[in-house]
Amino acid sequence: MADYNVIVIGAGPAGYVAAIRCAQLGMKTACIDKWLNPEGKSSLGGTCLNVGCIPSKALLDSSHHYYFMQKHAAAHGITCKDLDIDVAAMQVRKANVVKKLTQGIGALFKKNKVTSIEGAARLVGNQEVEITAPDGSKQTLTTDNIIIATGSVPARIPVAPTDDKLIVDSTGALAFDSVPQRLGVIGAGAIGLELGSVWSRLGSQVTILEALPDFLAMADQKIATLAQRELKKQGLDIHLGASVTGATVANNEVSVSYKDNKGEQQLLVDKLIVAVGRKPNTEGLGAAELGIQINERGFIEVDEFRQTAVQGIYAVGDVIGGPMLAHKGSEEGVMVAERIAGQKSEMSYDTVPWVIYTWPEVAWVGKTETELKAAGVAYKVGQFPFAASGRAQAHGDTTGMVRIVADAETDSILGVHIFGISASELISEAVVAMEFEGSAEDLARTIHAHPTLAEAVHEAALGVDGRTIHA
Domains in the chain, ordered, with CATH? Predict the structure, then answer.
């Protein structure tokens, strides 16, 4: 008899959620994780809770409060003398947020009777896992099923090797103990824009170098244009079509070389953040040796229900590719747990929401106009600016808009794209509507409270058929 019904490797959002769901379904479950916090103690939650989603949002909120007091508070009749930022205190607050949530996962494991095991896991059989504890001791456990949820790590580029001092990855950028006077960022994706925003709001002169010629190429391009314009107003100097060719450290500064349409360029900064994406974390796992297929980009290959080529071994989250989003990984973990238990669970990848937590936020779900044009799909669009929203006017931030793309014949919602305050919350209405195969007319006929930001979604839905009321 096996030691466990399920062993989950990795306690990030995909892994810990999978473990809890397995336990809820009556399976004896263990979750193995090797993450150690700066004090050398076990810290559940993976990248997201420890050095990703959560700490970055903590710093984004702190920096936004400071920026608001500097730039916008006076318009509300609020004045403050001798405004200052205490970076050390801000970092302590961030650490406390992280600590509370990571410890919370431990409490959830206890509540659901998930066995938490500290150490590095290695597959030594399709039903065996070897665990190396921090002290070097080893044990081997048997199991009926294995769920790999080892996540991802920051991608590195040879032309800008990190030194964890002046050239850092996203983890290092979350731990600065002072505000750099000049900050360079390689990559204008979600990570680069969010981290660049944090330190720009606190006073850094931020330059972002993006190799692609288009800003936020995966987003609706009208939304992307608005976002780029607003971020430029906020002080982010974004260079598109800028391919970095080298980065060297001398005299306590970083010299960055890059090429753009004007030729060879040079940038001097005090700190450089390398934010060029993430790669799957399979090092030391022993997956390939066991017969699990790994593609040329390093991702574990799985079928539609996230089972690998080896019977009884599944993989979920960042390690299998697709949208590298915590919520996508969590839902995959739930699906796999339920299928192991005999249920016929599935999940829709067409309605996975995306969010970039700049200010204002960028959020979308479904298809863009660019994608629909390429596919030859006839569509219609409704849009509504937050400038015409009473709630946005009262709030004091009217930047951005809501755009809804619907099928020209059936009126089914194909995509919703938002740039504006609380876009991360507003997008959920669109996700629900699309999950229930709703139409733009369904949203247009749904009563929205007044005054709310959500009325912008309502008005955009009305606009699909040319009957917007307030714009």
Answer: 4-154+279-340 (3.50.50.60), 167-276 (3.50.50.60), 354-463 (3.30.390.30)
